[in-house]
Amino acid sequence: MKPGGRAASAPLMGRESEPAIFEFSVPGRRSASFRATGLPDWQAGELVPAEDLREQPPVLVEVSERDLVAHLTRLSHRQYSVDLGAYPLGSCTMKYNPKVCDEAAALPGLTGVHPATPAPFAQGWLGLLWALGDALCKVTGMSAVTLQPPAGAAGELTGLLLMRAWHRSHGRSPGKVLIPDSAHGTNPASVSLAGYTTVSIPSDERGLVKPSNLSRHLDDDVAGIMLTNPNTLGLFEEDIAELASMVHEAGGLLYYDGANLNAILGVTRPGDMGFDIVHLNLHKTFAVPHGGGGPGAGPVAVGPELADLLPGPLPTQNADGTFGWANPARSIGRAHGWHGNALALARAWAYILANGSDGLRRVAEAAVLNANWLLAQLRGTYAIPYDRPAMHEVVVSTKGAPGTSDEMHALDVGKRLLEKGFHAPTVYFPLIVPEALMIEPTETESPETVAALAEAFLAIAHEGPEPALHAPRSTPVGRVDEARAARSLVATWDASTESEN
Amino acid sequence: MAGYVPHTDEDFARMLSELGLGGADELFRSVPAALRLAGGLDLPLGLGEPDVSSQMSRLAGANRAPAELVCFAGGGAYDHDIPAVVRALGGRSEFVTSYTPYQPEVAQGVLQVLFEYQTLVSRLAGLPVANASVYDGATATVEAVNLAVACTGRPAVWLSAGLNPRWREVLATLSAGRGIELVDVPLSGGTTDWEAARGAPPAALVGASPNYLGCIDPPRRATPVAQAAGALVVNAFDPVSAGLLRTPGEQGADVAVAEGQPLGTPLAFGGPYLGMFAVAGAHVRRLPGRLVGRTVDSEGRTAYVTTLRAREQDIRRERASSNICTNQTLVAVAAMVQMAWLGTAGLRELALRCARGTRYLREAVLSVPGVEPLVDAPVVREFAVELPISPELAVERMAEEGFLAGLPVSVGGREGLLIAVTEKRVRAELDAYASALEKVVA
To answer: Which residue of A78, A290, A472 is in closest CB contact with B99?
Structure first.
């Protein structure tokens, strides 16, 4: 058998603690240098009124460039990443990020452009944004899109405010938004920020929203429903067409959380399912690297009835083929200080160019194939609380698992997996599954890697809880004392507290 | 087609057959047939890598080359030099291709960089705790208002007219659902006339220093008014000018926010940028976004972990203090490297160099016949002038001369041009700018 992508990465990772950068500081040492400008060397007292001038600059750190590079390089060795090995973190779509997209986003012709550059001098950027928006509309089956929201949660809030504006334009002000109990935490948090109240809809025995469950909650006060489809159990909401017509009939709108769009690229579209508002996570589906926790991008696409409410300005194509900006007639206003996370948008556009319609469909097929194949290997060892045809991710559990001890917890499986050279899956989510392990292999892991991952999961289950309880031992640090971090908060470095540690 | 799916056709066939499926379409059997997309996506077929690169280069080339449009625009986005070390370290794939550090045992790299970033931001702000970043200056302001509203239970905030107008618009958009009342407080001579504000006591007084017109508008002038009203002081500062100006914290700010772009992030048509966010100790538990804390591991070794997690959306859901999940970590990594590279003396020198260029160009521009100051208060990195022609026309004509001249601004019904000078601008460029301006306004 060929080797899989078992990263066997832990031994590669730095085991030695790295001192804080501040500990390398030596008075008078410096890295910075500046260009020769030929300007007069006016001093601070000549430039700033005395009452506003600080006499000494803030104390940062004084290190050589060489020490700075060594510090960050050693820290990078204490960091797991997609480039190192499989990262089956469910819901996050930690796929491989093509290097050509990195290179495109570093082109000086893109990075050097000020966002206030008048349209005639920013035709490349405007053309890129226009083309990306057009492609995202085609992928989602929607009519118009704003690229401004800088992340998925920002997209959610923007989308909910569009929902609110649409109701108001119809003289209504309903107060509730329905959300399945399997939803991401950002959904209810965004609902509150939009001024709505969350009503949680219980999932049925299939792990899906059942029309009869929904109908109980539909009334005049419902602004709409937020759904992730496939949902966070990795299951397609099979009754979506019926759910959509019920919500529409009650006067509400359907919001599509695009967290799991990767599963359906080229297969089906939110617009075809009846959704009115869609946010996309370009850092998931369109391979914008996750950057240790951002930046991402969360564009929002809408159907024709909401198009003139979108945040503006929007890139437009003029009759002569050039590009400009236009504000939608009834825009809710800006959702971003400029035009969104533009370099993330550029990466997504490069990714779409590389994949095309054929490649994007292949993405969905391989993502779903890998997840189902992995699930088949785990069946009989782990519990599968909702055992239906899976989409791009699967949720299994250690509770009641046929192949392991009841003492085994999801957390322990995850920690043991770190020792085996893989990142852990998402644990304890969705909340409706006790001891949940949410696994998303993504399409970019080879069959050999998925096999190695499956093997690791099985070995951990078969070993039982004992080795897992003390895991991970081969990682840069062992289990971290989270309670202590919260109890005695140390959120900044301070020379006077160093001896305590 | 290029492709990042490793599976061969044989892999597909074998795995499908092991699953008892007859073809790839059957993978989607839970998607009702009526919803299946017939004919696939209406997009071109995928391209090979060289063709992708060509198309992206063509787009980049369709923008006026930055060297042919020398940047004097600011308004929240500044054309600073970025040292090679920032790109080299910020581009390391361990930082680029990881995610939010949910598994701290294998994420000490990102966690420690964020801890160091928080420390540096806290020192710039003069406040004890900074978070691990929010999206940008605009969202940092929105989050600060949310914090103040939650803290005081009051629905109104007073906003200085010196706040970035696009940030104000984002605040208006994103707070529309909760009926937060935005009360605008006018400028007088370029700084906020807090005494002129009227109405019920607000949750916060929100100002900026330097403000949108470039003027030093110190938060200490808001502090007594805020204290009398029982309101918080929120101050937007500039992390570069922080090398010269007194901190928001020492002037009584409860929350300090900043657009972090000037420290290591390219202009990039407006993003990704970086929202810096720092608070007084009393507000730590209302912080939005991630916070990294130091602790120990099972062996007693120093370790870092995201902490006070109970504030966050994935735990508190509809009662969370913010909906932020993915933020701007990689941009914070770049800012940390840039701050460490600058160091204590370098930040001071950077701020000084910006202030010198600003003074030099301001004097040169004001010597152009017909050009007047728009406001009089002292400036450090940016200034506004009134021109004999409309600022839009000036920007258009100056572009033909090879300059991105600035941003049109208006204050109290008067229009002007906002001009920024960074350490990147040399004397010859400043002289050429002033000559060109003299020509275009004549």
So the answer is: A290
Which residue from B381, B378, B362 is spatially nearest to B423, judged by alpha carbons? B381
Neighbouring C-beta atoms of residue A482, cutoff 10 Å: 16
Q: Which of A49, A150, A444 sits opposite B4 (nearest CB)?
A: A444
Give the gap in angstroms from C-alpha B119 to the nearest C-alpha of chain A: 4
CB contact under 8 A, B65 and A109: yes
- In chain A, the number of structural domains is 2
Residues A364 and A348 in one domain: no
ipTM (interface pTM): 0.98
Give the three-class secondary structure for B70. Answer: strand
Count CB pairs under 8 A between chains A and B: 727
Distance from CA of B35 to the nearest CA of A (A): 6
pLDDT tens digit string along B202-238?
Answer: 999 999 999 999 999 999 999 999 999 999 999 999 9
pTM exceeds 0.95, yes or no:
yes
Closest to A286 (Cα-Cα) out of A370, A353, A234? A353
Chain A residues close to B243, C-beta within 8 Å: 57-58
Residue A165 sits in the same domain as residue A300: yes
CATH code: domain B84-336 is 3.40.640.10
> How far apart are the C-alpha atoms of B364 and B343, rounded to whole Å?
31
pLDDT band at B269 (very low <50, low <70, confident <90, very high): very high
A391 touches chain B (CB under 8 A): yes
Asked if the C-beta of B33 comes within 8 angstroms of chain A's C-beta atoms, the answer is: no
Alpha helices in A205-280 (DSSP H): 211-215, 240-249, 270-273
What is the phi/psi pair of residue B235, to 5°?
-130, 130
Residue contact A81–B98, C-beta within 8 A: yes
Render pLDDT for A432-490 as a digit per residue (tens, 0 to 9): 999 999 999 999 999 999 999 999 999 999 999 999 888 999 899 999 999 999 999 99
Cα-Cα end-to-end distance for chain A: 47
Tell me whether A350 touches chain B (CB under 8 Å).
yes
Query: A199 and A246: one domain?
Result: yes
Residues in chain A, pLDDT under 70: 1, 4-12, 497-501
CATH of domain B66-82+344-441: 3.90.1150.10
Mark which residues 138-157 of A lie under 8 Å from B by CB.
138-139, 150-154, 156-157
Q: How many CA atoms lie within 13 A of A461 on its CB side?
A: 23
Say how far apart CA A96 and CA B231 lie, in whole Å: 48
Question: Which residues between 174 and 233 in chain B have a beta carbon less than 8 angstroms from any beta carbon of chain A?
Answer: 174, 176-179, 216, 218
* Domain locations in chain B as residue ranges: 66-82+344-441, 84-336
Residue in B with minimal Cα distance to A497: B294
CATH number of the domain to which A439 belongs: 3.90.1150.10
Whole-angstrom distance, CA of residue A77 vs CA of residue A11: 10
Closest C-alpha among A87, A417, A453 to residue B100? A87
Question: Cβ contact (<8 Å) for B267 and A115?
Answer: yes
pLDDT at A11: 47
